[in-house]
Amino acid sequence: MSMLSPIDIHDKQFNVKMRGYDQDEVNDFLDQIIQDFSDLIKRNESLSADLKAAQAQVDEFQGMKEALNKSLILAQDAADNVKQNAQSDADAIIARAQKHADQLANDAKAHHDQVVGRAADDARRYKIEADDAKRNVQEFRQHMKMLLEAELEAIGGAEWNQTVGAPIDQPVPASAENKLDNEGPAPVESSSNGSDNGVTEIVFPDEPIK
C-alpha cells in the first residue's frame, strides 16, 4: 500500500449515511490533517535535504581524511627516504674521510721509512768513506815513512860521506830515524767534492814534514 499524499486525503470521498458524522466537521478535520501532513512532508523533505547535505559533507570529510592519511603516509615515506639517504650520505662521507686519513697515514709512514732508509744509507756510506780515508792516510803515511827511511839511509851512506867529507863511520842521529815513529798521525781532512758519486777528496796539511 502506497503512502497517502495530501491530495489523496483531500480528494477522499465518503458515503453519506443516516446518523453519520457531520460532514463539515469531518472536512475541517481532514483539512487540518491535510495541512499537518503537508507540513510533515515538507519537513521530511527538508530533513532529507539536510541529511543529504550532511552526508555529502561527511563524504567530503571522509575523502579529505583519506587524502590526508595518504599524504601523511607519503610524507612519512619521504621522511624515511630522506633519513635513509642522509644516513647513507653520512656513512659515505665518513668512509671517504677514513680512507683519506688512512691514505695520509700510509703516505706519512712511507715517507718516514724512506727518509730513515736514506739516512741509514747515508750513514753507512759516510762510515765507509771515513774508513777508506783512514786507510788511505795510513797507507800514505807508511809509504812516506818508507821513502824517508830510504832517503835517510842513503844520506848516511858512504857515498854521501865521501862527497861532503864527513866521516864514514859517523852515526846517523837516532832522533832523525825515529822521529816519524814518535810523531802522531798528521791531521787529515776529508771533504765531499759536491757530487753524489760518493768520492771523498783527501786534503793533506800544508805544513812540511820536519
From TrEMBL:
NCBIfam families registered for this protein in UniProt: DivI1A_domain (TIGR03544)
Keywords, in A-Z order: Cell cycle, Cell division, Coiled coil, Cytoplasm
Major site of localization recorded for this protein: cytoplasm
Similarity field: Belongs to the DivIVA family.
Biased composition (Polar residues): 189-198
Coiled coil spans: 37-150
Lineage: Bacteria, Bacillati, Bacillota, Bacilli, Lactobacillales
Places the protein is found: Cytoplasm
GO biological process, one term: cell division
GO cellular component, one term: cytoplasm
Record's protein name: Cell division initiation protein
Pfam family name, one: DivIVA
InterPro entries assigned to the protein according to its UniProt record, in alphabetical order: DivIVA_domain, DivIVA_fam
Region (Disordered): 164-210
Organism from which the protein derives: Lacticaseibacillus pantheris DSM 15945 = JCM 12539 = NBRC 106106
